# Entry
Amino acid sequence: MKKIGLFICHCGSNIAGTIDIPEVKKFFSGYDDIEISDDYKYMCSEPGQKKLRDAIVDRQLDGVVVACCSPRMHEITFRNAAQSAGLNPYKVEIANIREQCSWVHQKEKGKATEKAIDIIKTMIEKVKRDEPLKPIEFEITKRALVIGGGIAGITAAVDIANAGYEVILVERRHSIGGKMLELSETFPTLDCAQCTLTPKTVEAGRHPKIKLMVYSEVEEVKGYIGNFDIKIRRKASFVDWNKCTGCGLCQEKCPTKTESEFDHGLGERKAIYTLSPQAVPNKPIIDKNSCRFFREGKCRVCEKVCPVQAINYEMKDEIVEEKVGAIVVATGYEILETDKIPEYGYGIYKDVIDGLQFERLNSASGPTAGEIRRPSDGKIPKEVVFIKCVGSRDPEKGIPYCSRICCMYLGKHARLYKHKVPDGQAYLFYMDIRSFGKGYEEFIQQSMEEANLLYIRGRVARIMQEGDKLVVWGVDTLSGRKVEIKADMVVLGTAVLPSKGAAELGKILRAATDEYGFFSEAHIKLKPVESMTGGIYLAGCAQSPKDIPDTVAQAGAAAAKVLSLFGQEKMIQEPLIACVDYDLCSGCGVCVVACPFDARMLDQEERISIVNEALCQGCGACVSACPNKACQLKNASPKTYIAMVDKYL
Amino acid sequence: MVSYPYFPGCALSTKAKALDICAREAMKSLGYDLKEIDDWTCCGAVFPLAEDEHIRLVSPARTIFKASKISDKLVTLCSACFNVLRRSQKVLKENLEKRQRVQNYMEEEAVENYPENLRVIHLIEILKDEIGFENLTQKIKKSLKGLKIAPFYDCLTFRPPKEMEFEDPENPRIYSNFVTALGGEAIDFSYRSECCGAHISVSNPEVSLECSMRILDSARRVGAEALLTSCPLCHYNLDARQKEMVEKRIDFKPMPVFYLTQLLGIALELPENLLGFEKNYVSPLPLLKERGLL
Amino acid sequence: MKIVLNREKLNSFYVQTIKDISLQKIMSCYQCGKCTAGCPVADFMDVVPNEMMRLVMLGEIEKLLSSKAIWLCTSCFQCGTRCPKGIEVHRVFEALRSIALREGKNYTDIEKLSEDVLDEIPQQGIIAGFRKFESLE
# Structure
């Protein structure tokens, strides 16, 4: 004879409006094993929880069923309440009579009451069979891996390192700073991007707790929250950075020039090069694809001029293994490829450029030393058209979402253009002006007023090259008129896409990405920096397009999440996971294949399957796959479920 | 007896005499002597909106200067005069470059001492700020009890608010409070601060007729028996043109439109011949007689 | 009819004159339309106030000078009073009227007015209506 307490919640009128609660309560008074059948308007409220706690103590209950909303909402609330009254929390079950009953049967009140009784009956059977369980504890490796060395990754790394934990900062390119280092000036304050960023890159570069791994990529991730095993590929730079002093002589003397990625094709660099004058670390790499030695087998100029013999043409990629407890994904973004919008001549006409190219044109360290000169002939453009939503909000040809930064940066571009070319005219085609951030709307309005920018509401249909002009066909939907502009240069606010390889990295991390390749957050409102996988956090454009303030805020939040994990002595894990009846297990390995979390493996010696308790999420895939019924979920055995179903039938 | 320089303006001297006569007589009985400025000239009729039209400020500047020799206040009543004089004084006070240009057309004395401190005021401001509406209630001889008056807030007295510095044109109260002070029932109506059509009665009479009709209909819908205005042009559009409204719409019911001073005159029991009702197209006499107010 | 935009057009003599005599920051208009929404005569206009602002921004002045709308404006100042950007739209209307008048374009024909109207309407109305006539300077 068990002593089970039943507590029925009204949930205001959410449940009580449909289900006849006095009737349910009466039904279970004196029911087998039910010691008390009670109800309350809001069981989750403090007085409601007190009812439950008092009953556990006064009536010496050995099990509790709360008939209320979904266990996703308040299972944890009632388990904690039971625990504080001395009852094992896993002896508390939720009978969901809201989502699965009152909400869906509002028009059939009588039947809903009957169904609520059935649901409660089955849960009583479950509670009767529940074992008291204890949460599982694990050690935590208190080191973090940050993937991506842009402003998001740098911020997260520095924040974690400043709290005293070691951080490995992995960056694909050979210096950190990311896209922000390519920008000229930033909205809404128009301060120089490098000036704002370089103190951060320098700090990250020389922080004793940060291990910088540039020109490196994460290749393999095993393990789970608190205990990840990472393999990182350090790509061959062909320069021994331990010897290299960053004197720059090799770059100066290198005879081979090629297009500069940093200048987005508008400038040139050498085959041995650093990304920018402010590169951190200030060490060059040899680009195998353009290096004359690698292509033709002769040259070796860099080797000859290097005063410290740092050049090593024999260098090979290297795999570095690391152990970490948490991972921050800060892989940033790319912009839409040039071939996507042929009607604008992007990638065809030289003077149709994208927003990042304009950043380089406007940058003092850029190919024109900051003068606004168009790529085709170096002339100063007097009529410049800026086009927003190029590929964004365009489900047919591009992506359906809003790229969030273009409204602001094109407004900024146009304003900077007017600063440098006061007699020029800037035209901005837009669909909406989304200036939601602090100081943003004021910035846009000030630009309109002071820089006389002409904002034109409408999309551009096409651009044609006629002589040295770009004829832009647009519309002003405000006046309902088609407009035509003979422009000298066109700047496109192209769509923001996830960084190349983000989806592949997602697979390596076992962290979900969405249909576009952005990393998915665990909850869009309440868990915006957590990925769907424990121990992996998101920062910046890896999750969705973001401006710098939002990126930095999210990076700080991701760091805080890592720190709250590292602040715990041990990892606590729910014990409702799979277990194996070794007498029945034949070691066939079907469960290993079925497990989506890599939590199952075979003990080759014993010829049985075992469960990695840290990785198991209790999904039950192995239970259904096991041919011998050896796999079971704790407190959810087939016997229990059969008893529950029996009661219902 | 307090004495203030008074600028009646052309309309009040001719077509809107009713507004003027009762004003002088009523104010006299309240202890105010409105002293007409000698040799006054046109107020300018329209405040110059074009930045380069300085010459239109000369006439108001002269009037302001004349008034300043008598007092630091200049009383007006016609909305157009009030609008032009008040805005001109503001711009001449604040914009020294403009003042300089205007003074080129004025006598020497005015150039040396521009009357920066002179305030152009509307007659209702004496009633509200100097006498006070509460005291006014004590002073009236006959309450307008039961008379449902819809106060109409003309454009020129209230707008543009930054220049007129009068009362918020989006929720004006002053005429309602005035009607209440006289014992009448003030009826707020939706169109109380919409434009009557103003001067486009000259060029597009059909458009302004539409504007005025909307106002009268709106007042009628909430039970008004009469309208109140202090603007001669609104009075023309809202009263005289009811002749055309009756012709245009068979169900249109005429409604008397009072000048604010006519109402004040009734409450102070001025003799009927000073109330100027013969100038009203829709005679208020039947309504007033029915209520025993005349 | 399409609009061809260029620097010359956006900074034409007309546009500059409108800016000079209205003193308004034309380019700060963000086309919310509140001016039109509250205009008492917008129903009767061929170019409504916000559209007028837009065409000035685009340098399309000729169309405005020949519009009926600039003469229908009653100068009630509702538009300017309510503009969230503080643009005195009524002054832009006045600037357009001033340009038209200075070019000798009249709207009101004094010959066609009835004696009755002239007898009854207060002087301010006549002057406001005919200011457009006498401004042939």
In short: Chain B has two domains: 2-123, 142-290. Chains B and A do not touch (no CB pair under 8 Å).
